[in-house]
Amino acid sequence: MEKKKLINKMKLEKKAGLCSGADFWHTKEVERLNVHAIMVSDGPHGLRKQDKEWNSLGINDSIKAVCFPTGCTVASSFDRELIYEMGRTLGNECQAEGVAVILGPAVNIKRSPLCGRNFEYFSEDPYLSSTMAASQINGIQSQGVGTSIKHFLANNQEYRRLTSDSRVDERTLREIYLASFENAVKEAKPWTVMCSYNKINGTYASENRRFLTEVLRDEWDFDGFVVSDWGAVNDRVEGVKAGLDLEMPSSGGINDAKLVTAVKDGVLDEKVLDTSVERILNIVEHFENNRNHDAVFDRDADHEIARRIAGESMVLLKNEGILPLKVNQKIAFIGEFAIKPRFQGGGSSHINSHKISNVVDSGSAIKGIEVIYSKGYDLDKDEIDAVLINNAVEAAKNADVAVVFAGLPDSYECEGYDRRHMKLPESHNQLIEAVTNLQPNTVVVLHNGSPVEMPWVNKVKGILEAYLAGQAVGDAIIDILFGDVNPSGKLAETFPIKLEDNPSFLYYTGEKDIVEYREGVFVGYRYYETKKMDVLFPFGHGLSYTTFTYDNLILDKSEMTDQDELMIKVTVTNTGDVFGKEVVQLYVTPSDDGDAIRPVKELKGYEKVALNPGESREVEFILDKRSFAYFNTMLNDWYVEQGNYGIEIGASSRDARCYETVFIKSTRKLLRTYSLNSTLGEIQSDEKGKEAIMPYLESMEAVFGSHDSYDKTEAASEAITEEMKTAMMKDLPLRTLVGFAGGSISMDEINELLKELNR
After folding, report:
1. How big, in percent rounded to 5, are the helix, strand and coil portions of the chain?
2. 736 — alpha (psi -120 to 50), left (phi > 0) or beta?
3. Helix or strand holding residue 744 (H, E)
4. Mean pLDDT confidence for 693-710
5. Could you tell me which residues come within 8 angstroms of residue 257 by beta carbon, excluding any fewer than 6 positions away?
6. Helix H or strand E segment including 412
7. Cα distance between residue 463 and residue 473, in whole Å
8. In whole angstroms, what is the distance from residue 365 CA to residue 393 CA?
9. How far apart are CA 541 and CA 585, in angstroms?
10. Fewest CB within 10 angstroms: 121, 364, 471, 598, which?
């Protein structure tokens, strides 16, 4: 039946009821009209389906499933095809379990390393975040299953997340926080969008018409339904007006009754309610029409996919010739994470894994090695145990190589609260210090969902960032440590030396509920690179067991307009002895002549290439207007300033290998409006203004004189230099011409000049 006819057959109460859940995980059905209920389930890196229709968020009640690498991990793959495959696998699992929509991916920007939910999020960079999200969405939805991209918008902390107010200027929203969603919504068309808990500039996300309707639907053409985060509804009626369609979980009929009353009282137009119902019914029908009853959830096969994704995503941060390990070496695995790895975060994304691999067992099973294991610390106690450390040191002394497994226990980062610092547990730090004092051949493997400080960084020979790599973590780490997999991950976030270096440090979490994003667009590497600040490991950094060279950078044009596309080619060669993959990164540096305050570089392209020893490949990028633009708030649009732009190709934000420039001519003229307080320099920077004001400037010579018109005594030269004169003339407001021209210019003449300039 056509949707509008179907809706017309529904009573008002039934329509209102369809706009909220039946329980925690299901929409409502209308049996009389053959409208089925659908199930949604937590993601984004695994299927956390409730085993029964529980009205709770309980973890223990979810089915046995496969935990894939978390967002922080898979983003480090910089591999669109890989995350598409992960999405496709998740989509098939959903079909097998009858789940219509998986709640993910999560694309909020990593504003601070402290956010307790950073392990779910992709990156500090909106381009990387949005393109990775688009690939995951396309993968999932290729299986006839929907996604719910989240959490829209500016949800960058867990502290007071249900009441905090993110105060963000328009340009920062457009360039950073909206941009993380924009490409994914436009290109991948997620079935649903989940709104966040917080306010944005004073209005709750759940009732923010500007973002839920004007931006999301009117600008980006989103045509699915908007669902609330669980418990995010503040005012149900205002939410529907703003564009919030589905409330989750069920309110037990309380908010449904408010919608009915609002319609009857004329507060809410019933047509607005009908629109929300229609959007929900469209998704219900979409799933029903694409239902695959033959789908099979092969957990063991999907475990192997998770293992491969983990191996492609882990980041080799440091290697002084110690890796890969050799099977004939005597190796000590130290730290309880070696047998109880931390591979996912806590909260709504926590997967009830059907099996988990650890490095001790995997080392024996995969490589046939006999590992010396020492506990080193106790995960159940956040304290230093001298006996465990001493035992670990003895094990390390008797080995050729010590591999210390350290990181953040579950209690250190989790949904619902933020970290207070970037430190590892002191028991982990002291263990590493003690081992390195007696064993110079030490490697550290990290299990963590966000950056940590590393006071021992210069004492170890190797560091592998495993992040939270999913249930196949042990197998994947062994693959990399022994060289069966060549590491190819790159950091999707900067590791600062200390927390205080982070640009949001002074303002993060805010004062009570007010959170000011004072760092603006200078998030992550945009800040560190512009400040030329030392970091522990830069954005995009990651080592390999082979080496790569970049050369023959070619731009298809040296000059263009902002309406043209720029094609870029660069050749990458594997100059080492083993097969490897390299992430080629393209950064755009803005024009030096521009007026806008901008970061010194921004990621605008990346490609991951696989190369055999000696093999070369040409990598191609295409950049358009958005690649060079910033968001101009006067125009309320994207704008490219005229000038020379740099094209930087490299292996990280700090490792540029090739550089060229292109001149871009702006086809859009900014409409300038002048006033009595406009400076002479501003007016002269415009061709029309320069010509109009020239006669008036000649009168100014009577005040300052030419450099030849006054006695060039030493005192005079020191008092009024040519540089001083030029600077003062540039910064004088137009109104000062009346006084400084010695009466030769009247205010009437200045007002006539203004009319001409603004005509």
Report:
1. 35, 20, 45
2. alpha
3. none
4. 64
5. 16
6. none
7. 16
8. 26
9. 10
10. 364
CA distance 605 to 599: 16
Predicted confidence at residue 709, as pLDDT, reads 45
Say how many C-beta atoms besides its own lie within 10 A of residue 443's C-beta: 22
> Which H helix or E strand runs over 554?
strand 548-555
Enumerate the β-bridge partners of residue 606: 585
Q: Which pLDDT score is estimated for 50?
A: 85
* Residue 406 · residue 446 · CB < 8 Å: yes
**pLDDT score recorded for residue 694:** 87
Residues classed as catalytic: 229
CA 315 to chain centre: 17
CA 134, 139, 142, 147 torsion-angle sign: negative
Strand 630-632 vs strand 559-561: parallel, antiparallel, or unpaired?
unpaired
Name 586's Cβ contacts closer than 8 Å, sequence gap at least 6: 568, 603, 604, 605, 606, 621, 623, 647, 648, 649
Residue 57 has pLDDT above 80, yes or no: no
The span from the CA of 400 to the CA of 420, in Å, is 37
Per-residue confidence (pLDDT) for residue 180, from 0 to 100: 98
Domains of the chain: 21-289 (3.20.20.300), 299-531 (3.40.50.1700), 548-665 (2.60.40.10), 680-758 (no CATH)
Mean pLDDT of all residues belonging to the chain: 94
| DSSP string over 194-205 | EE-SSEETTEEG
DSSP reduced 3-state for 486:
coil
Of residues 309 and 696, more confidently modeled: 309
Digit-coded pLDDT (tens) for 342-356: 999 999 999 999 999
Task: For residue 201, count CB atoms less than 10 angstroms from its CB and return exposed for 0-12, middle for 13-18, buried for 19 or more.
Answer: middle
Mind listing the pLDDT tens digit for each residue in 189-243?
999 999 999 999 999 999 999 999 999 999 999 999 999 999 999 999 999 999 9
Q: Which stretch of DSSP H or E encloses residue 717?
A: helix 714-719
pLDDT of residue 725: 72
Q: What is the DSSP string of 614-630?
A: T-EEEEEEEE-HHHH-E
CA 192 distance to own-chain centroid: 19
Question: What is the reported pLDDT for 487?
Answer: 98
Residue 158 tokens read as 């867990």
Question: Can you name the residues that pair with 41 across neighbouring β-strands?
Answer: 102
Q: Is the peptide bond before 105 cis (omega within 30 degrees of 0)?
A: yes
Do residues 41 and 351 touch, judged by C-beta distance below 8 A? no
Q: How many residues belong to the chain?
A: 759
Spatial separation of the C-alpha atoms in residues 711 and 640, rounded to whole Å: 47
Helices (H), ranges, 142-245: 170-172, 179-183, 209, 236-242
DSSP line for 465-476: E--S--TTHHHH
In this prediction, residues 35-57 reach a mean pLDDT of 84
Tokens of 12: 């008002």
